[in-house]
Write a structure and sequence with these properties.
single chain; alpha+beta; Aminopeptidase
């Protein structure tokens, strides 16, 4: 097994173009922005076994004292990707074994692999190596549908909700930079005071990633406003070759037509008119799941595998403490 570190965007993108199961979240520009926002160190490795290139894996390490975690991010589907021949031959396990020396050198005590929908993974083999396996449902509108076909397939109640927003003056259009870096930053970081749950993004992380991505042409930023021009909701997506990948949808419920319905309806029209599938992302709650299904989202399953190594953590912590003690005595 041979690993080749890929340290620049052009080389990385050239590798993933030859792989299967690549998501919008795999893109270098997006992962590097996440890494900077969360104080992670991003590395990527192409893997050869027996002279054959299997694929490439992005690894985002976060240091936790003497140890680290890898790929714990607020998006799914960013795990290793394989070339078609290797994937069809079921060589995912070889790919993951090849990465183990890197994880050991980085003293990684918590590892997360997340595979895009449709990527076959030997779950028993992963479980045998200490991974806890869990499915994560995501929802999408296939690119094969036209906008008219999509509307015809909606339940009458949901179709009426779409039309009600249009009749009552909700409008959706490109977001301004101020929408992105001020309104959205406060919304996703909990600065607006309306979050009931802990946000995935601290104020610092939100500011960092939004400032970096705000002007990137590979991002689609859309704002929903009421007839008076008040900003009600925002939708942020990654524009990829075959799919519009939903990343963030922010905005509180309001009286009257739903701005969330308007945001999804806008994303669906935008993507289907361009021959792209429309990805809604995952659903962290039953209510969000029901909403995405009502909006026509067809379920897909991402498999995730997480491994925690408490024994390694305890050993590393002990060694780190001894090293600090030795330095204190000899300084």
């Amino acid at each position: 097994m041979t690993l080749f570190e890929v340290a620049d965007e052009a080389s990385y993108e050239a590798e993933i173009r030859q792989c299967v199961g690549v998501t919008g979240y795999h893109r270098w520009f997006f992962l590097s922005a996440l890494a900077e926002a969360f104080g992670m160190r991003m590395r990527a490795f192409a893997v050869d076994v027996g002279g054959e290139r299997l694929g490439i894996a992005p690894l985002l390490f976060r240091r936790r004292g003497p140890v680290s975690t890898v790929n714990f991010l607020p998006v799914c589907g960013i795990g290793p990707v394989l070339r078609g021949e290797a994937l069809r031959a079921g060589r995912v396990q070889e790919m993951l074994r090849a990465l183990e020396p890197v994880l050991l050198r980085e003293r990684t005590v918590v590892t997360k692999w997340s595979f895009a929908p449709g990527v076959p993974v030997n779950l028993d083999a992963l479980a045998g190596r200490g991974f806890r396996i869990s499915p994560v449902a995501t929802y999408a509108i296939p690119a094969t549908k036209s906008v008219d076909d999509y509307l015809k397939g909606l339940a009458p109640k949901q179709r009426a909700a779409v039309r009600r927003g249009e009749r009552r003056g909700l409008s959706t259009g490109p977001s301004t930079r101020e929408d992105i870096t001020d309104w959205l930053r406060e919304s996703i970081s909990g600065r607006d005071g309306r979050h009931e749950t802990v946000s995935d993004y601290s104020p610092h992380a939100a500011q960092s990633i939004l400032e970096r991505l705000a002007d990137d042409p590979r991002m689609l930023w859309r704002s929903v406003r009421d007839p008076g021009g008040r900003l009600l909701a925002m939708n942020a997506s990654i524009i990829d070759e075959e799919r519009l990948w939903g990343w963030l949808l922010a905005g509180e419920p309001v009286a009257g037509p739903s701005p969330h319905v308007a945001a999804y309806w806008d994303a669906i029209q935008w993507s289907l008119d361009r021959g792209l599938a429309c990805d809604f992302g995952s659903a962290p709650t039953a209510g969000i799941r029901d909403f995405k299904v009502a909006m026509g989202g067809e379920p897909e399953v991402c498999m995730t595998a997480e491994r925690v190594r408490p024994g390694v953590y305890r050993t590393a912590r002990t060694m780190h403490a001894r090293l600090l003690s030795w330095r204190a005595k000899h300084s």
